[in-house]
Task: structure prediction
Amino acid sequence: MSEKIFGNAAKRVFLVTGASGFLGKEIVKHILSEGGKVIAADMRTAPQLKEINNPNLELWEVNLTGDFAMPKGVTDVIHAAGKVADWGSYESFYNINVAATEKLMKLAKESKVKNFLFISSIDIHGFFGHNEETEDGTYYPSKCFYPATKTIAENMVKAFNSPEMKTVCIRPCTVYGPGDTTVQGPIMDAIIKGQMGFIDKGKRLITRIYVTDLVQGLCKALEKGRGGEAYNIVSGEKINWMEWVEAIAKELNVKTPTTTAPYWAALTVASIMEGVYKLFRSKTPPLLTRMRIQHAGHDFYFVPTKAKTELGFEPQMPWKEGIKLMVEEYKARKGIK
Result:
């Protein structure tokens, strides 16, 4: 992404939390490309960040759920750190998604930071059916800890907006692209192993965003977004599960999975699995969880109308081309010809 978004990047210092993650690394690279100074914060520094030879990059290993002080000179905060999962205790989600966000935000304001961007999630809308919805769409209360804590944190961040420090939230959907080992990586593993299946024949709609398009959207939200607002940062492309998996399988040169199950049956199995795993207090999630089945068993299609109108956000990567690039990197990393 070569587009210049920041008007005066060279005069600013950006603190990026979660900088070693899939998205965080791309945020860091973009800000550096515009001449901005970056403090890349994470519990452990990714090797890819250590390899960047740029005097404008400072690496900071920090646990945001512990004691820390705001680095000096920060003008902008992009808070990408958080727990993204469908398994774990409520406390483990709350500590990083809510408590750490509140502490970081208050320290930022005390340190005269001008702009604070929080990466929320489209999942705060809940999973029981969305078709071409905006930020004004339906909200289903969720018992899943990830969207529940993201909802608390987003509301807190929006309410904290002030003339002294602008606070803005973005709601990304599932992000994909080369180097994704968190979501699409396991899906590609499952497709190759013949372990991938569908709910209701894969007809449910999904929402995706290519990683560099997400970086464009969040940077524009930081720069141009209205304080106290939230923006959907999604591609807006209408895709269903079958089309998505079929395109990945084609690039992997394997057969498209055919296994399918009705929603009610998959949800029943997931509920039983969760019960057993909770009984034994397993820290490892079961193969199926209710959150995964609810997500895949209902339409989940959102559009970025507000971001396009107010931020000038324009996704650049067509999803089939994005899949080609993602699978190409996956095959090279896995040694697959």
